[in-house]
Amino acid sequence: MNRCTQVTLVFLLLVIILPCSGDTGILNSGSSSISPVEKQSFVPLQETATWQIQDHSYFHEDTTFRDVYFVNSTHGWVVGQNKTGLGGGIILNTEDGGNSWNLQLYNRSHYFRSIQTHDGQTIRVTGVGGILYSNNGGQTWDVSVVVESTPGIGAMKFINETHGWVSTMNDIYKTNDSGQTWQNITTWTFTDSLRMIHFVTPSEAWAIGYSGIYHSEDSCETWERQYSQGGWSLSFVSDSAAWAVADSWIAKMSDGENWIEQPAPRSTSGFGLSSPPYFTDVLFIDQMHGWLVGLETPVAYTQNGGATWYAQDVPDEMDRRMMAVHFVNNTHGWAVGSGGYIMRTTTGNGFGAALQTPFEIPLSYFVIGIVIAIVIVVSGISYYRKYGKSGYHSVSDSVIQMVQEYN
């Protein structure tokens, strides 16, 4: 057999061997319940999304903003904590989209974690042992005590002005009188502290904690664990469709019941590493358009329901973990995080560098490999019959030698 034929034989062998190796990022089918992503047609890149850091007086390495909410494109709030000096919770407010930020409250007794408002007048913020609330847009604040001497309130959700729920360490409390009194829901039996509660109807609720995702159909009186992994945040686009994120994974629910882990978008520098991407928050404004924020990629965007993700451009100095993201439409959004950073974009539906995701080998690839293998085996048998044992050994030795040189 001549040199050209030998090279061709080795190439065909490599075509079969290399796709099955563990260095290609192919998912192990036994590692997790990750659903394959359908291959999308090429979408021409539109305007590149850009984020800008907003200036304020509270930048510090020990300041962390944990939540952000805007009622429209101009009026919004960020809440968090400042651990410097005596420490305490901090609330900033803007009335011009973030061009300027004003200190609305600083409280040394509380670390603020989340904010909720429907109309911009009645505002509630989770603190230590209870929630702080304002009925005049944040001009004055009062405290609604849930329970004395608790480390802090994790999750909070009010479905109207009177009915609300909060979580503490391993407990859930409810109020029917705007927080004047609170009752412990003793039927909550899971050893978990919730990070977010979301109602899809006045009686059906979902929650995510450190150890799982939970579902209730009777206004939080009884719960079932629907997913065995805990995380940070939930984002619902309908009663039955939602997303969830944790440090190292993202999951999607499409049927109102089952959560399926999705391929996690990674930057080129982070792909294949053992360290997680450290996602923190997810927000979808409809079935197709959504954003992820975290550490490895401060802001990621998808325009096709998570099939592909893009790293939106942030300033070079942005190397801190983003903790929360909020959009009022598909272009105007804000993200906040550690270091006291607040970022804004008005091009939120733009693209950026494509992020990588693990993939599964298509069935057709295996079929092609099997066909090639059969051709090689049949050719080898024919060659053995024609040239005998000595010729067969000379070819096999050549193949082995070339494979060794390749490695």
| Oligomer status | single chain
User: What is the total domain count?
Assistant: 2
Query: What is the β-strand count?
Result: 29
CATH topology label of the largest domain: Methylamine Dehydrogenase, Chain H
Main β-sheet description? 5 strands, antiparallel
CATH top level assignment of the largest domain: Mainly Beta
Provide the structure class.
alpha+beta
Determine the mean pLDDT. Answer: 82
Question: What is the global morphology?
Answer: globular
CATH architecture identity of the largest domain: 7 Propeller
Q: State Rg.
A: 27 Å
CATH superfamily of the largest domain: YVTN repeat-like/Quinoprotein amine dehydrogenase
Please estimate the helix content.
10-25%
Residue fraction in strands? 25-35%
Strand order of the largest sheet: 22-23-24-25-29
Segments where pLDDT lies below 50 for 5+ residues?
7-45, 360-366
Distance between the termini: 23 Å
**What's the total helix number?**
2
